[in-house]
Amino acid sequence: MSTIELKNLTKAFDKLIAVNNVSLKVDENEVLCLLGPSGCGKTTTLRMVAGLEVATSGDILIGNNNVNNLETRDRNLAMAFQFYALYPSLTVAENLANPLHAENLSDDEIKKKIFEVADILQLKDIINRKPHQLAEGEKQRVAVGRAIIRDPQCFLFDEPLSRLDVQLREQMRGQIKEVLSDLKKATVIVTHDQLEALTMATKIAVMRDGLIEQVSSPHDIFAKPNNTFVAGFIGTPQMNILDCKIIEINSSIMKINTLGQEVKIDFQSPLNVNTNDSYFIGIRPRSFEIVDSSDSNNFSGKVDLIENMGSEILVHIRINESTFRSVLSRSHKLKIGDSINLKPKLGQVHLFNKDGKVIRDE
Amino acid sequence: MKKKAIGHAGWLWTGLASIVAFIYFFPVLFIILTAFRSRMDTLATPPKWIFTPTFENFYHIFFRAMANSTEYVSTGFHVYFFNSIYISGMSVLLALLIGTLAAYGFSRHPLRGNDTYLFIILTTRMLPPIIVIVPIFLIFRITGLAGTYTGIILMYTAFNLPFSIWMMKSFFDELNTEIEDASRMDGASERSVFFGICIPQVKAGLAATSVFALILTWNEFLFSLLLTNKLTRTMPPAMARTIGGEINVDYGLLAAMICLFIIPIFLITYLLQNQLLRGVTFGTIKK
Description:
By secondary structure, chain A is α+β, with helices and mostly antiparallel strands.
């Protein structure tokens, strides 16, 4: 069975704890993205799964078997590396064939497999070239090809698209997703690119400083962040996270003071909060709509800066001494200095306590 | 002033460079010419530039006339020539073998305090070798290594190891370790990672290290003088004996010996020069 399970996995380099008590489960046919800023321990986690790094403590189970004491080559995994790691002196075909040598296949079988993979990844034209003669996108496809040519238990990808340009990245994202969905194996992808994670994964684990902050479906990670870190890390432009104080609670509708303004917000269900306590509210820049009048349901401020985003504009709005940002349609014809009234969309306001944890109606 | 295209230095600079190059090469040229001069020609002042070349000096390296006789006997010089080749070759091979393995260890499986060990290794090269000759001489006497091939080969191996380790380590450090990891994923054992993946990628380093080690060993004089005997003596002390103690130094003979002496090292350096250039410039160009 193709599953990966991590139980309390920890990796310490001397005093630095790179991975701290991580527990995760990846089921068959599931693509888990380990997402996080550089240095958060995601690659170390992946390398421990691969057996390239020895865990300080904890267990790794692949297909329900504990592989803690198995060598890399005995774990039956395939991995695509960030810098492709193609053998410089071998041709594309030889690079693809290399993982098969350990399997004692006949030459004909090896040829057949190379042909199949070359077909899937459109490598036929470059099959006899050496890595230094390949473009970045082609190298990347060979690296993926080398991972999928065998029939391993699980797949691991380390920042597979980080070296490609934007266009190629988009194209490859689709291609890898397609290949992975055909393979039906447990797959772990490491990335710092949230778009990559949101599009390719069926499950995302957000990591920070060696800890898992949240594991959810791509939609839930975006729509229901567990804390201010996840809320700020996922989504571009970044979520506005503002200090606030609750003034009045009327079932699900609360009057809060933020940015020196009193605003009524409907949280749709009653929350376990107290009046006069301080909290954070989080509102994504795309969760605002422009309204005509200024009343107690709206944020009223002045346009401070306008950034062009193509079909949309990113507007920095100043209220008293603070600013927040909102993405609006270009059709609004805003100018710097204009007065503006914004109303948060219903159900798209998040409330966090001062420790950064979300407050949600459970 | 006319601006020169990049990539063309122009005749003036090329001419100046060739003059400097000639100054460097002149002593070697002088020796080569002397090797082909007859005994009379070598002693001429000012030196004769036009002369009839002769091979008699080369012949006399190996065969010498007995006193008061026309019979020629072997000088035994071929033994020293063989000794130089054998001793240098063996010690360079050993240093390369041990050095490469050690460097891989230092690079991939660092010890606690790795840098300290590397520094200690380097300190052995900080002092002039003459300083340690007394204890080494005693060790050789006690262990019976003095005058043996094993002794001098071990000596030279130890002598070459520090920089072999340092050089090879820098080559291993430059490699992309992802490729090694990839081959582990592909089912390679640690041994095949080393021999199949790492070694082919550091060929240039092996070439550069072996040439440097070879030049050092081939030209080494002091240890050979003190730690070898008549049977195991290498070329440098053997040549020195040709000068020493005689009233009339036969410069033609000495020059001929030098010519023979530089041929092997010249050939090897020439054969490996492409690798050597790559070895020396390694890491200066981003991958």
